What does this fold into?
Amino acid sequence: MPTRLCIPILAASLLGAGAAQADDAACQRVLDAILKQGSTPVHQKVSIESAAAPGRPLLSEIIRTNDTLYMQIRGQWMAKPYDPQVSATEARAAMQKAPHTCTRVRSEAVDGQAADLYSVQSKTETFSTESQIWISPSSGLPLRQRTEMQTGGGGSNRHEVRFDYSNVTPPAGVTR
It folds into this structure.
């Protein structure tokens, strides 16, 4: 996954992007959280399941510092430069590609932290997404994200991501 696409992919998978919005305030809250996260060091634990490999999720991690993105896939870490301004620009552009709806669902805890749960849906001729994102009301950052994606050809996958913002440090022995 190219470095600069991580935030736009998150934005696109959460928002699908664009025009129609059920609740402008809810969509703005989700966008603000995504953009804020793009400039905040974070450790992400990711699980991706696909219809092509049911029951065999791809587990990975992403650690992002201020200027470097570290990705671990199948046990191997790699490092790439990261520019939060480029990511923010690409996130906004990704969100202009399809209509979406956003709804604040309820408040609930994620790993002991207060969070507001938002539902985000998007549909185009070639794909649809249904996402849930839990955002901390105190920090304004995403704590968890779950996305179901369906393609027009019948393919599907599920992304589950947990976000941790405390003590974010590069993986040992990995240099850019």
User: Anything to note?
Assistant: DSSP finds three helices and nine strands in the chain. The first strand starts at residue 42 and ends at 50.
